[in-house]
């Protein structure tokens, strides 16, 4: 090696086997950077040049092998492309961009064809480009422990494997299995990876390096399977009877699952399809061309920014008050042992904290603990937990009706019925028992925190922590700052949210906060379409085609129609009839009060839920429509725009009103909280990447046809006039 390596330690043992230990200084996790690529190539050159070296094992000096490429490096390639385009022209810029974006693929191919055997000894996470490195090695040994995971999750940030992953996986596995793995981006346990043909051996963590060396000592081949003459892919040729059983269904599944919203998914399909018809080197070049194209799409730029960079910054405390010492939360009280409260107790105990679960009587409290038992048992049945884990978790939960048990809690989360009077009674009982240092948090979905805090004796220690249902699955938590909430309360809430492995965003107090304001606008738009006469199935399909995880009617069933009606009536009582939509109220009154259709919870809502069968739209919906539109006369693109624009407008209004003060939180929150079309990067990125002027024009067109809910707020009009973006303020602050 020409220069001393900074990111790898390299040594050769008495048997002539090299060991390259990847251990980047000053980082908790190894990541692939330009410097790492240079050093890895240098190691390959050194191994090849020294006749005394038989081969090389690559391993990690950290608990995890690597999380993959540094995506900020890929962002930098895009910026460099724009600079070169301006100075040297588009052709020169594109040529440079293509060569730089395929650098990793070329280094891995050089390793694979260097003539000496390389083996990967993997422990912990090995994802993305790091797993592509392992796949380029001739032999892979994985640690047999619960923490070892391998996978290619690039699709989740709008990318696809560009370091040879699409070509090697498709040559190691049946094509259908390979496509499924690439589309889902899931992490695989060691034994599963071996059974799928992605690894050669699984061994105890302490033995993986020695096992890899033994393979080289025993004469391991330095030729990859696809470089052997007459190699045949596991599923045979693309153009064959077997191939034609794969590709037409694969294309149909791609369209059903993505609605053509994710260019990276289409690129995966094309790369595998074209690559399997070519020799490996040409297949890799095809992959690189698609990768260079995807890197420059607005979908990839938006998803990388929100789901990698912004989420990482938020999870590391970007919005946590800086001058508050980290809190030590050992014991948490949860008041209200219903579905929501029990879920909060479960995730808290799962994080290792002691929990006091309180309800009105012992039976109700025990029912909440029983729900925790059910949740952890489900994990055991899926092989994700052990019986000992269940015993330990349940031992950390004390179910009781006695408020005095809260006397040594550091934090109490109230999760009782959405009624200010009920919550006020609970606040009084809790504060009578709480120690002075403890923080009180209200889990409410719509009630303003400042109003609830009026009955508190210590409003500076009163904060909102809004969980989403089901708690154990949903990743987002809104931390709500009331008018008197202090920094210590906000910091403690964020520390707690991080401890239970959720992502917390800070929002200022307002009715509905951030997420519910946006998602209720989505549900309301579905109601409006129904009353306009749009066929219910078309409403649901348009919602999914727009990029939402479920249609608005299905979503309303999940959260319960009677809850929606209660929120509507409470809003009307407090703010007047002008604050609600009369058509929506009529619909919900008819569904809930006249028809007894409450949603999934009573198996009768916008859908019917037959025992043991799939849910189906309730045929009676047609009776509720004042008139019915001809499906052929309806513009489906307009329906899709309505669903996204109405939510984005609400997000923009929360910025104007000061509810959201950081665009990163709006975008991360909109995707994690209610599934706002991830390919857009979130509700504000949807506007930013479209451009405020174009967005305002679209909103105005919808406003003229559908009414004032599509009226752009003043901040958007100003941005449309001056070319501004929501992220401009963030850049200035940086």
Characteristics:
Rossmann fold, 8-stranded mixed sheet, N-(1-d-carboxylethyl)-l-norvaline Dehydrogenase, domain 2, alpha/beta, 3 domains, single chain, 6-stranded mixed sheet, 2-enoyl-CoA Hydratase, Chain A, domain 1, 734 residues, 32 helices
Describe this structure in words.
With about 725 residues, the protein is α/β, with parallel strands linked by helices. It has three domains: about 290 residues, 2-enoyl-CoA Hydratase, Chain A, domain 1 (Alpha-Beta Complex); about 180 residues, Rossmann fold (3-Layer(aba) Sandwich), CATH 3.40.50; about 210 residues, N-(1-d-carboxylethyl)-l-norvaline Dehydrogenase, domain 2 (Orthogonal Bundle), CATH 1.10.1040. About 50% of the residues lie in helices and about 10% in strands. The chain has 32 helices and 19 strands. The protein has an eight-stranded mixed sheet, with helices on both faces. Helix 6 packs antiparallel against helix 7, helix 15 packs across helix 16 and helix 29 packs across helix 30. The two termini are about 40 Å apart. The model has no long low-confidence stretch (mean pLDDT about 95).
CATH class category name of the largest domain:
Alpha Beta
Going across the biggest sheet, name each strand in turn.
Answer: 12-11-10-13-14-15-16-17
Low-confidence stretches: none
> Can you count the beta strands?
19
Helical stretch count?
32
- Rounded to an integer in angstroms, the radius of gyration calculated over CA atoms is 28 Å
In terms of structural class, how would the helical and strand content be classed?
alpha/beta
Helix content: 40-55%
Please state roughly what percent of the residues sit in beta strands, choosing from under 5%, 5-15%, 15-25%, 25-35%, 35-45% or over 45%: 5-15%
How many distinct domains?
Answer: 3
Shape: globular
- Which CATH-level-2 architecture of the largest domain? Alpha-Beta Complex
Would you tell me the overall average pLDDT? Answer: 95
């Amino acid at each position: 090696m020409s220069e001393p390596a900074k990111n790898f330690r390299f040594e050769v043992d008495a048997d002539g086997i090299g060991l390259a230990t990847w251990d980047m200084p000053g980082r908790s996790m190894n990541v692939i950077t330009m410097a790492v690529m240079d050093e890895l190539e240098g190691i390959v050159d050194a191994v090849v040049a020294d006749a005394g070296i038989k081969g090389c094992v690559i391993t990690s000096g950290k608990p995890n092998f690597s999380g993959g490429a540094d995506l900020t490096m890929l962002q930098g390639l895009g910026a460099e492309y724009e600079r070169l385009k301006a100075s040297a022209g588009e052709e020169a810029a594109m040529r440079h961009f293509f060569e730089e974006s395929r650098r990793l693929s070329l280094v891995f191919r050089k390793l694979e064809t260097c003539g000496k055997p390389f083996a990967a000894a993997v422990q912990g996470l090995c994802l993305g480009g790091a797993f592509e490195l392992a796949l380029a090695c001739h032999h892979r040994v994985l640690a047999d422990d619960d923490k070892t995971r391998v996978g290619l999750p690039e699709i989740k940030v709008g990318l696809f494997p560009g370091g040879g992953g699409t070509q090697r996986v498709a040559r190691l596995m049946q094509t259908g299995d390979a496509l499924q793995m690439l589309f889902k981006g899931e992490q695989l346990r060691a034994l599963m990876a071996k059974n799928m043909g992605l690894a050669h051996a699984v061994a105890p963590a302490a033995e993986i390096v020695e096992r890899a060396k033994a393979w080289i000592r025993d004469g391991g081949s330095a030729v990859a399977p696809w470089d052997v003459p007459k190699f045949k892919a596991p599923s045979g040729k693309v153009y064959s009877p077997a191939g034609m059983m794969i590709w037409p269904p694969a294309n149909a599944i791609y369209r059903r699952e993505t609605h053509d919203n994710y260019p990276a998914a289409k690129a995966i399909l094309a790369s595998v399809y074209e690559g399997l018809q070519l020799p490996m080197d040409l297949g890799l070049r095809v992959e690189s061309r698609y990768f260079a194209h995807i890197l420059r799409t607005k979908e990839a730029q938006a998803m990388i920014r929100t789901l990698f960079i912004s989420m990482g910054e938020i999870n590391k405390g970007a919005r946590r008050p800086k001058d508050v010492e980290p809190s030590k939360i050992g014991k948490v009280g949860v008041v209200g042992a219903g579905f929501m409260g029990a879920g909060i107790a479960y995730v808290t105990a799962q994080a290792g904290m002691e929990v006091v679960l309180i309800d009105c009587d012992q039976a109700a409290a025990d029912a909440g603990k029983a729900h925790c038992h059910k949740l952890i048992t489900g994990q055991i049945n899926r092989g994700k937990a052990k019986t000992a884990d269940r015993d330990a978790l349940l031992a950390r939960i004390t179910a009781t009706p006695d408020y005095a048990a809260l006397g040594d809690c550091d934090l109490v989360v109230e999760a009782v019925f959405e009624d200010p009077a009920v919550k006020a009674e609970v606040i009084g009982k809790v504060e009578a028992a709480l120690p002075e240092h403890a923080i009180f948090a209200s889990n409410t979905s719509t009630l303003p925190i400042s109003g609830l805090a009026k009955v508190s004796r210590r409003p500076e220690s009163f904060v909102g922590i809004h969980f989403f249902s089901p708690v154990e699955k949903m990743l987002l938590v809104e931390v709500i700052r009331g008018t008197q909430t202090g920094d210590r309360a906000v910091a403690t809430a964020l520390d707690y949210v991080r401890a239970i492995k959720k992502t917390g965003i800070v929002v200022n107090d307002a009715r509905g906060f951030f997420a519910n304001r946006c998602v209720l606008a989505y549900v309301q738009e579905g109601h409006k379409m129904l009353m306009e006469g749009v066929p219910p199935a078309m409403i649901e399909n348009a919602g999914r085609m727009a990029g939402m995880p479920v249609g608005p009617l299905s979503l309303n069933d999940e959260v319960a129609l009677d809850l929606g009606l209660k929120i509507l009536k409470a809003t009307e009582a407090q703010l007047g009839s002008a604050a609600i939509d009369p058509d929506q109220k009529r619909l919900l009154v008819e569904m809930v009060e006249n028809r007894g259709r409450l949603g999934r919870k009573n198996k009768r809502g916008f859908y019917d839920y037959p025992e043991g069968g799939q849910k189906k739209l309730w045929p009676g919906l047609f009776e509720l429509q004042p008139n019915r539109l001809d499906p052929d006369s309806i513009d489906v693109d307009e329906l899709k725009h309505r669903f996204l624009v109405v939510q984005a407008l609400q997000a923009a209004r929360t910025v104007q009103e000061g509810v959201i003060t950081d665009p990163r939180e709006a975008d991360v929150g909109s995707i994690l909280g209610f599934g706002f079309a991830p390919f857009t990067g979130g509700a504000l990125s949807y506007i930013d990447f479209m451009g405020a002027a174009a967005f305002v024009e679209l909103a105005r067109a919808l406003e003229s046809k559908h009414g004032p809910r599509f009226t752009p707020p003043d901040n958007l009009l100003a941005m449309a006039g001056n070319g501004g973006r929501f992220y401009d303020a963030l850049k200035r602050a940086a």
